[in-house]
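pasting for the record
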Amino acid sequence: MEVQTNHNRQVMLQRVKTFWLVGVLQESLHGAEMIDLSMTYRTNAVANYAMADWQQPDNLLPDEVFDTPLPIGTSITKVYDEAEGTLLIMGEPGAGKTTILLQLVSDLLLRAQMEATHPIPVVFSLASWAGNLPLGDWMVNELANRYEVPRRLGQEWLKNGALLPLLDGLDEVEQEKRVACALAINQFRQKYMSMPTVVTCRIKDYEALATRLNLAQAIVLQALSLEQIDQYLGSMGPRLAGLRAALQTDRTLRELAESPLMLSMMTLAYYRMPEQVALSLGDRKMGRTLLFDVYVERMVRYRGGEELYQPAQTVGWLGWLAQKMSQFNQTIFFLEGLQPNWLPREQQRQFVAGLRNRLVGLFMLIGVLVGLLGLAIADWHALLAGLGVGLLTGGLLAGFRLLLVWARVDWFRIETVETLNWRWLRGLLGGGLGAVGGVVLGSLLWLAGRSWDLSPAWILLLALLGFVSQFVAHAAERDETKMRTTPGQGFVRSAQNGRLIGTITGVGTAVSLTLGWLISNALNWGLSWQPFLLFAVGATLYLGLSAGLAYGGLAAWQQRQLSQVLATSQLIPEDFLSFLDYAAERNLLRRVGGGYMFVHLLLLDYFRENGRSPSP
């Protein structure tokens, strides 16, 4: 047990390192040195501060800001230790809140690797907090969905204090839910008083809250000084001489460069473009929008690699993605997050109607095929029976959203089936109940059809059919854990699970019914091969297809259909994943595990405001 516990811990530590330190922090530096940010304590920003009388200025009002500067070069880990692990990090947009948080994560990961009792540092993006769950339950969900941690293990870690939550982006919670989120954090802190907790937030958004967080200390990240900016650019080599000269003469550009994010944008914009272009831009005034224009254009045109997409297409597609991520309050985009409600309302109804009609037609086609087979080997009565069964199965799907007795379709939501557990005991119990139901139904049919000389073999066949269908329904258990280490993996796994369960169900149905027919003949129950063959073929196709769709196949099909509709509408390219990787290679997006995020919230805002649907 201890070996498994240690294994789970090491896997989680490596996952956090891969997602955030390699995937985000190192990529954001682009090979440059980390800038030492200036920080100040703002002690009265938190709820449980206690400042000695001699520390407070005589003229300080209750709500007035009182900052205490820290020496430049003070590490965030030292500040965290002095705050005994409960800390609020504030700053202006682009001030480096997430970057400094990840510096802290780096040090805390090292401690956790060296000390078996040290809690596991985990970054949680508060943007996905919806307000309907206590913070602890939300964390367990995030561990399952973002880090692939089984819920039972996540609950155990939370209960035992094995987690060190780092909550990034309180300002990214929907505005009307921000106060509720702050209260949820305080309730969490009250319940888990000994658990270290770090929160980041923009200054203005935090100051607008009526609630103060119950943390020990708060710091504010300060703007970069001209000396820090010049020293940073100097470390990047002579290539940036034009930018250094522009900063000396352009006050607006210099003010923008006081933000670490903007300075990074400037550096990349100048460094990636041809040298003669970079030098010529030294004389131009550059506002924030123009800076982003230059950054995006240079990343698309002059970044290494083949130019697969036109700049206007890139801006248009990323603009649409940014608008939808903002609309649905997402900071990390997963391909599995694409849903029919990302379409305009009228197009959404058309998509659902088209998908439903195709599926209904597919089941009706099975009935037609069985009927034609019956016409070939028997008579026109078999044709009518096949058509009737096709209408029945298609009608169940169209009118009642039923694939099988136990599976209902949600046309307006794509539900992946990424992990399945096989429960033999539950399967046998469910199969037994299904067999009893089959016996009852078969007996009723046999009694009703005695005047037609109906064979008692149908009782056995329906019992076997009930056993197989209910065995699969109860043995195959969906696991809520999301296994997404690579983009689109949820749909790949759903398709695999659909094929697996569909094949098992189809083969199991065919084999069971064949054995039942052989037993019936051995008992001289007089069932000819023609009606048996028609029944066996229809049941095998229907149950196999239905089970395959219910356990993942439908999600994979819905995703393909939705992607085709979005691509036809030119909202996304035909190969969306390749485009997302392309954008990540050009520092417009960043890969985080199995998802993507914009390199900064400000860049997301830029694309949301400036992105347009690509023209044909």
